[in-house]
């Protein structure tokens, strides 16, 4: 009986989320003209659960928390700057078109309309040279890193897990040289 309960418990804890904990984000940072440009790609792309949520017509988003950090001597690293990037898609079943919206720290651009699923996949998972941070207050010859964490909405699971299993992450280190 204990073995059965343990197996059920493990199955419940591993319940499907739109982003698996093992997912990785490829992150590249570039320092130029006192700005830090960040490129990142969610390696797993759009999962079947996320595709089903999109096709149902639900507003679906992948939110990325992008942080500029510096390693600290103590336990926790210091977050110097942070930005929230959200790629949002909503499918209109009547017109069979996707409405794509990008927000950076809550500020959105004009939505884009498309019928192409590949465009939707790239919209949700690939970001190229976004000027997210400045180097004004950074020290020269010090190592910093950019950490990107992603999570999807709606959070597609039927079990509450308090430690954010439904996220993916990636890191890119760099040394500031002026």
Outline the structure in words.
The chain has 178 residues and is of the alpha+beta class. It has one domain (19-175). Helix content is 16%, strand content 47%. The protein is built from 3 helices and 10 strands, in the order αββαβββββαβββ. The protein has helices spanning 2-13, 48-55, 117-125; strands at 25-32, 35-42, 60-70, 78-92, 97-104, 107-108, 112-114, 126-134, 143-153, 167-175. Strands 3, 4, 5, 6, 7, 9 and 10 form a 7-stranded antiparallel beta sheet that branches. A hairpin with a 4-residue loop joins strand 4 (78-92) and strand 5 (97-104). The protein is elongated and about 55 Å long. The N and C termini lie far apart (65 Å). The model is unreliable at 1-18 and 157-165 (pLDDT under 50).
Radius of gyration: 19 Å
Helical content (DSSP H or I, runs of 4+): 10-25%
Q: Report the portion of residues in β strands.
A: over 45%
Number of E strands = 10
Give the distance, in angstroms, between the N- and C-terminal Cα atoms.
65 Å
As residue ranges, the low-confidence spans are 1-18, 157-165
SSE string, helices as H and strands as E = HEEHEEEEEHEEE
Q: Quickly count the domains.
A: 1
Count of alpha and pi helical runs: 3
Let me know the largest β-sheet.
Answer: 7 strands, antiparallel
Content-based structural category: alpha+beta
The averaged pLDDT comes out at 83
Shape: elongated
């Amino acid at each position: 009986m204990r073995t059965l309960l343990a197996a059920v418990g493990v199955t419940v804890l591993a319940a499907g989320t739109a982003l698996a904990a093992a997912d990785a984000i490829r992150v590249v940072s570039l320092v130029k003209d006192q700005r830090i440009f960040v490129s990142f790609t969610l390696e797993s792309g759009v999962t079947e659960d996320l595709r089903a949520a999109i096709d149902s017509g639900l507003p679906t988003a992948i939110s990325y928390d992008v942080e500029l950090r510096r390693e600290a001597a103590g336990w926790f690293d210091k977050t110097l700057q942070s930005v929230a990037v959200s790629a949002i898609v909503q499918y209109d079943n009547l017109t069979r078109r996707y409405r794509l919206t990008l927000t950076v720290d809550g500020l959105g651009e004009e939505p884009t309309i498309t019928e192409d699923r590949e465009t939707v996949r790239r919209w949700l998972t690939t970001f190229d040279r976004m000027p997210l941070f400045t180097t004004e207050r950074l020290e020269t010859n010090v190592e910093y890193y950019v950490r990107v964490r992603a999570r999807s909405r709606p959070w597609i699971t039927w079990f509450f897990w308090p430690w954010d299993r439904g996220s993916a992450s990636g890191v890119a280190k760099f040394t500031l040289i002026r």
